[in-house]
Design a protein that fits this description.
By secondary structure, chain A is mainly beta. Chain A contains no helices and eleven strands. Chain B is globular. The chains are: A mainly beta, B mainly beta.
Chain lengths: 113, 117
Amino acid sequence: KAGVTQTPRYLIKTRGQQVTLSCSPISGHRSVSWYQQTPGQGLQFLFEYFSETQRNKGNFPGRFSGRQFSNSRSEMNVSTLELGDSALYLCASSSLPGGNTIYFGEGSWLTVV
Amino acid sequence: AQSVAQPEDQVNVAEGNPLTVKCTYSVSGNPYLFWYVQYPNRGLQFLLKYITGDNLVKGSYGFEAEFNKSQTSFHLKKPSALVSDSALYFCAVRDIGSGGGADGLTFGKGTHLIIQP
């Protein structure tokens, strides 16, 4: 059974640009969450999607958005990139929202220059 | 609100000795508790979880954790450490008493585990 797949793995963007990251959850999992990991702030919850609907959202500005498709794949978008957005973005999948079995992907490393 | 504390930034253990990585949590309801491990430049790997039932939870790679409700702790343990256990370990909590974890998982700051040969 394939794990959580995130693309791209590495990318470099310029301040002011926007970026889209993709996540394919484990087959059969319908809930997808996103987390940001930085050395200073650690791991922080961004948002969770289930059935193409955002269920909850962490304390991030509106520049951070996401969506989920009917096949449970999810994308997150960051607009007007800032240097501080440089981070590892992790996607997690579970069978249901608020689930107790949560698996993470390898992450997408974003560097903003 | 939910929170997690990992009081040690780094734990050093000699290979073959037992190891403990500490975690305490705070929730308003009942917790789901997790341990994850992260190797350099990698994502998070699931080690084990506590949902309900037995306070001693066994997980991957010989790790186990003990849930202690009175002390609100969930320490990670292994009887005999391996050099390959050296990595960054994260404890996480989800408060299932507040409507199913509205804030997602809350993670501790992480503990670097260094196993010396």
